[in-house]
Amino acid sequence: NYYSWWKNVDKTILVLIISFFIAGLFFSLVSTSLIASDRLNTNSYYFFIKHLAFILLGLSIMFIFSLVKEDYLIRLSLVLFTIFFLLLLIVPFIGAEIKGSKRWLDLPFLPRFQPVELIKPFYIVILASLLNHQKYNLYFKYLLTFFLIAPIILLLVSQPDIGQSILIILTWLTLIFVSGINLVIFFGIFGIFIS
């Protein structure tokens, strides 16, 4: 019910997320989007309305996923991660090339999208569940998570999409840092990736 949901929600993170959404909405209103709308001969608030629509969609998805029980969420994340990873695999073959990069899929029944954007939330859930697994040795878990991110990084570098590659690596490093890794090993891994 609503009470148990509200009791278990991390309110600090929720407030931060909503604050970022509101800040983004504010900046989309006061930025050059009005000038861009005039140039494109669209409604003056076209980009603001579009941004607001995506925020409402994002909040709805966030709310729905927050209602899902942990075990089911991990299983669902595994299925969705696999689907979006397969879509990422086909990007080099049928992806839409824009300014020399093949990062997007332009499927007839969907709007143009980047599969890596859809992978990220489920990738984080899977990484966290692997690092939280009690049966495996801690360093074996780090190795497993590395094998999970390595193919994603290789596919992103081949697109090329260095920004997303760095984001995926930094997310992985943050999660293994929070999991309690030895700092000498952590900074060794960090140094390897930086170099």
Textual characterization of the structure:
The chain is mostly helical and 195 residues long. 76% of the residues lie in helices and 4% in strands. A hairpin with a 2-residue loop joins β1 and β2 (101-104). α6 (115-131) runs parallel beside α8 (162-178). The N and C termini lie far apart (49 Å). The mean pLDDT is 81.
Concise structural overview:
This protein has 195 residues and is mostly helical. It has helices at 2-8, 11-30, 33-39, 46-67, 70-94, 115-131, 138-158, 162-178, 183-194; strands at residues 96-98, 101-104.
Helix-strand makeup class: mainly alpha
Report the span from N to C terminus: 49 Å
The best one-word shape is globular
What is the alpha-carbon Rg in Å?
A: 19 Å
Number of alpha- plus pi-helical segments: 9
In helices, the fraction of residues equals over 70%
Q: Which regions have little confidence, pLDDT < 50, spanning 5+ residues?
A: none
Summarize the biggest pleated sheet.
Answer: 2 strands, antiparallel
The counted number of beta strands is 2
Give the H and E element order. Answer: HHHHHEEHHHH
Q: What strand order characterises the main sheet?
A: 1-2
Strand portion, in percent? under 5%
How confident overall, as mean pLDDT?
81
